[in-house]
Amino acid sequence: MTALHRGARLSTVLAAAALALAACSSSTGGDALPAVTTTPAPAVTTVSSTSADTSATTSIAPPAVTTVPTTTSSTVAAPATTPSSGSGIAAAVAGEWAGHTRSMDLAADGTGMISLFSGCCTGETWSVHWDPAGDTITVTLVDQLESTGGGLGDLTQGYTFTGALMRPDGEVTALHFVRPGEDMGDRDQGFFWCSDRYGYTRYCGA
After folding, report:
1. Which of left, alpha, beta for 109 (phi over 0: left; psi -120 to 50: alpha)?
2. How much is the pTM?
3. In a domain? residue 23
């Protein structure tokens, strides 16, 4: 085969190869990139801390408070019996009593002791005799046992106090003492005694 023929054949082969490549490129669309699938980002819900849901708000009312009226000065009578110490005024008041700068012990046999002071350093201590009288008791000074700072000045042998169980604050039972001429029903007159048996009220003093 002559050189001319070999050149012509090589040209034919090259041309055929070029046609084949062209056909392949047109059928596959050239060098196609792989398909990329994109996934949308999940939706994010933002809740503002300043926008409270008022539909779920519950209103709680404060508890009701009942106040005992204080416009009247009259006391409230307390029962003259106690389940643990028998019945009657005598059983109800026998025992130890205390108030601001004062103390008293009423024995079940009708005797006792009372100490009354004004402030820290002026006062008197007496032995007493006491008697029930209906719903009240009468406490009589018998003998002066001690006098401090010159005494109170108005207490003498035979001086009497009248006492009755009252609830000056409407709740706690106290023993109300009045002097002759004072009104037992007026809590602003006389003075009050408290005991461990019944509890404490501010009317007995600090």
Report:
1. alpha
2. 0.60
3. no
Name residue 184's amino acid: M
Distance (Å, whole) CA 166 – CA 185: 9
Residue 13: its H or E element: helix 3-28
The backbone torsions φ and ψ at residue 108, rounded to the nearest 5 degrees and listed phi first, read: -65, -20
Q: Is residue 139 part of a domain?
A: yes
- Among residues 82, 85, 114, 86, the alpha carbon closest in space to that of 101 is found at 114
pLDDT in tens, 179-197: 999 999 999 999 999 999 9
Is 38 part of a structural domain of the chain?
Answer: no
Instruction: State the pLDDT confidence band at 59, using cuts at 50, 70 and 90.
Output: very low
Structure tokens at 141: 């000074």
Into how many domains does the chain fold? 1
* Residue 12 domain flag: no
